[in-house]
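Quick bug: Ribulose bisphosphate carboxylase small subunit, chloroplastic output formatted oddly.
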Amino acid sequence: MAAIASMNVAPVRAFNGLKGEQSAKAAFKVTNGFKTSAMMVWTPVDNKFFETMSYLPPLTNEEISRQVTYITSNGWTPCLEFSESDMAYTINHGPDGIVSSASCGYYSNRYWTMWKLPMFGCTDSSQVLAEVAKCSMAFPNAYVRIAGFDNVKQVQCASFLVYRPIGGAAKAVNARSV
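Here's what came back:
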């Protein structure tokens, strides 16, 4: 106790607000940079998406190339997968009433058909883009995605949609929200 009393400790003072050019009113303003009236609500009807980046506008070839470079720079193996619209996501399971949720141990349609073999040793994103073009030409009514697999952990570490069939289940970018 005596050791604590002998220490030089600054006295506790009440907070008097921010000093400088900011006013006290501005100091207590909380904002995320937008007005709430500018926020939109996601439309769940006929608005199917896959993985995180499918919620963005379609990626350009340059943006896809940068994502593939990220995959290969992490030592992951790029792989293309494709699926027709009716098998890309689960609408219902008919009279069986099977729940399609990852939490229930049954998750339908998470495995799509693989386009050729995984691109082992690939470090050139243009090779992956060429295969995306071939796959989408061979299966114009299918969704195509790129996945990145870690050969050490034996897991998929990245996956994103790179091709959507014309007239696919997704709404136009400007019609996704209300």
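Actually, after a second look the formatting is fine. The longest strand covers residues 142-150. Closing.
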